[in-house]
Design goal:
Length: 206
Amino acid sequence: MDDRLRRAAEGALGFMPAAEGLALYEAAASLEADGPLLEVGSYCGKSAVYLGAAAQRAGRLLFCVDHHRGSEENQPGWEHHDPRVVDADLGVIDTLPFFRRTVGDAGLEGTVVAVVGDSPTVAAVWATPLAMVFIDGGHGAEPAHLDYEGWSRHVAPGGLLAIHDVFEDPVAGGRPPYEIWCRALSAGCYEEQSAVGSLRVLRRVA
Ligand code: SAH
Ligand code: MG
């Protein structure tokens, strides 16, 4: 990965360790299926830079779906709350300005397309087969399963489905991302491609 983009990703606020971000980049750089990439859960754009760097090189687009109001676990009082991303006038989280800044600073505005809205709502009307889907949205049971149901069916044959924060041990983290990873494998449509930290990458085989 280009050094300048790597530094841009590492400098962004967010929840993606560098080793996992680089693994995400490597997966996105290895795509064989045609089509754009899409991530669910962009926050301030950290993972978007890793994915966008690979998309830019390949002349593909990356769609980034997020309502930018934060997940349950980003709200005040929760573990992943950061008061810097609260809009002072409205008193609610707004990560969209941070996301734009990250993507702009990385020089990825021609590659990364923000889709500001609710993931299942967008998934329901989506029609373009995707070379890669990265799921890192809400980690509660309902949002995680809705993201899986909404987006896994849009992965093109031979394309990749990546899931973040997959922790087999419930002590290490919430289980819903692990549950959807199990669902994808047990449905027989995906096989494992790689795993780094809590990042799991699956390849669509059917
Ligand atoms: N990938 C990011 C971290 C994502 S945090 C990084 O690299 O740092 C999870 C994000 O999912 C939050 O920004 C939150 O707003 C978004 N999110 C949660 N539920 C959502 C939903 N139903 N629709 C759209 N975005 C959602
Ligand atoms: Mg994550």
